[in-house]
Amino acid sequence: MEVTKTYPCVGTCSKMIIVTVDEGIIKSAQIIGGCPGNTQGVTALVAGMKVEDAIARLKGIDCGGRGTSCPDQFAKALEKFL
């Protein structure tokens, strides 16, 4: 069953993440705000990936000493599907 969820970002330039998952596979994603090239790259790379695999790759990535990043926030958004 396809499910779409939104996640408000904290501590990054990106403001919100919208993710659609179907049976544990990321179908589509959009990151609102942030660096367009980077956020489009992240969403393109995770499309078709298992939620757990994407979390493992993205969680903990830091941006400029902030303790988080757009990819890390994306991983936190994906954790809502577990």
Multimeric state of these chains?
A: single chain
CATH class: Alpha Beta
For the record, the count of structural domains works out to 1
Overall geometric form? globular
Beta-sheet strand percentage? 25-35%
Largest sheet: 3 strands, antiparallel
Give the strand tally.
3
- Gyration radius over CA: 11 Å
N-to-C span: 14 Å
Low-confidence region ranges = none
Q: What order do the helices and strands follow?
A: EEEHHH
Mind telling me which CATH architecture this is?
2-Layer Sandwich
* Order of the strands making up the biggest sheet: 1-2-3
Question: Which properties best describe this structure?
Answer:
alpha+beta; globular; Enolase-like, domain 1
3D structure, described in words:
With 82 residues, this protein is of the alpha+beta class. The chain has one domain (2-79): CO dehydrogenase flavoprotein, C-terminal domain (Enolase-like, domain 1). It is 35% helix and 30% strand. It contains 3 helices and 3 strands; from the N terminus they run βββααα. Strands 1-2-3 form a 3-stranded antiparallel β-sheet. Strand 1 and strand 2 (14-22) form a beta hairpin. Helix 2 (51-58) packs antiparallel against helix 3 (70-79). It starts with a strand and ends with a helix.
SSE blueprint:
Layout (H helix, E strand, L loop, with lengths): L1 E7 L5 E9 L2 E9 L2 H11 L4 H8 L11 H10 L3
Antiparallel strand pairs: 1-2, 2-3
Helix pairs in contact: 2-3
